[in-house]
Amino acid sequence: MVEVRRHAPRRARPLVRSASRVAGRAARLLVVATLVVAGVSACAKESPTLEGREASERGGPGPGGTADGTVPTDVTVRTSAGDAIRRMLLLSSSDGGTITLSTSGTASTLAASSKDGDARAVWFDPAVPAGVDHSACVTWTSLGENTQGGLALRVRNDDGRTRAITVTNNVFLQARWIFNLHLWDTGDREADGEIRLRVFRQFELREAGLVRFPPAPAPGELPAPPEVVDLPWRMCARVAGHVLTFKVWPTSIDEPRWDDPRHTGAALLPDEWVYAGRPGWYAGHIGPRSPLVQIDEVTDP
User: Fold this and answer.
1) Which residues in 141-157 are b (16+ Cβ under 10 Å) and which e?
2) 3-state SS track over 248-298
3) Side-chain-side CA neighbours of residue 175 (13 Å)
4) How far apart are alpha carbons 74 and 175 in whole angstroms?
5) Model's pTM, two decimal places?
6) Alpha carbons within 13 A on the beta-carbon side of 106
7) pLDDT at 255
């Protein structure tokens, strides 16, 4: 178990134990999301739309991590031995509280005792050697209403500067059929010291089987909200040189091929984002009653 302690607790949203309940509680937001993304192409977006608000939410001023790749220097760390060893890097957090990462075998639970839901973190197996080309997979079994699951690639920490490439499930307006590619660099800061949060690409996977879209409404009626398919969902992502690819699917269907356009996305990374790092996992918008629970964590190599 790894505990990250900060200060000044705030309130957070209650736990939502299934994806279908998320859709139910956010029905009005989903109607808005349907209208907003109606004109969004099914391919990657150079300029993000639904993530526009999140792109403007810059990370907190705390450092990205210590030289040994555990957690930022301004937090208290407690580690207990177990059958799965993980190291966690805090990417951003706007308030205080405690983030707890519990691992067992290939499963992890990430929760927060006193957060407003703005914490974002990555974790990885330190026994895995750093490399340029690698992959990671995970199955999500529980997501809070705004909890954001994802995968992290090329996670690296150099004397307090953390870099990571993440592929994450969108939470803005509860449009869960959208996935975002972020490029994290805690050394890239605004003049006031806040970390820039860059949404590099955005992918709309309307046919991935994660969401059921209702028929078109009758004239004069508002569209019904999409129905989010219950978890578990599984996602895999990989990097090879400049190329990043990922795929996602509900576990109720067979695993799709890497070239299946309904379930996959791909992007070319800039030269400066081709470097040696480790594969791992990501969680964002973590609240006290909104944990992320996932199983079957796999990395290669």
Assistant:
1) bbbbbbbbbbbbbbbbb
2) EEECCCCCCCCCCCCCEEEEECCHHHCCCEEEEEEEEEEECCECEEEEEEE
3) 22
4) 34
5) 0.74
6) 11
7) 97
Which one has a higher pLDDT value, 252 or 194? 252
- Contact present, 29 and 174 (Cβ < 8 Å): yes
> Do 111 and 286 meet the contact criterion of CB atoms below 8 Å apart?
yes
Cα gap 136→155, rounded to integer Å: 12
Find the largest Cα–Cα distance for the chain.
Answer: 61
Angle at 115 between CA 236 and CA 166, to 5 degrees: 20
Tokens of 90: 């805090």
The DSSP-derived string for 132-183 is: SSEEEEEEEEE--SS-EEEEEEEEEEETTEEEEEEEEE--GGG-TTEEEEEE
* H-run or E-run covering 109: strand 107-112
State the Cα–Cα distance between residues 173 and 59, nearest whole angstrom: 20
CA pair distance 8, 162, nearest whole angstrom: 24
Quick one: tokens of 7?
A: 């200060």
Residue 181 has phi, psi (to 5 degrees) of -105, 115
Residue 168 CA neighbour count, 13 Å, CB half: 31
- 12 pLDDT above the threshold of 80: no
Q: Where are the alpha helices (DSSP H) in 16-73?
A: 19-25, 27-37, 52-56
- How far apart are the C-alpha atoms of 116 and 99, rounded to whole Å? 12
pLDDT digits (tens, 9 = 90+) for 256-297: 999 999 999 999 999 999 999 999 999 888 777 777 889 899
Cβ density class 38-63: b for 16+ within 10 Å, e for less: eebeeebbeebbbbeebbeebbbbbb
Give the position of tokens 């403007």: 56
Place of tokens 């929760």: 111
Which DSSP category does 195 fall into? B
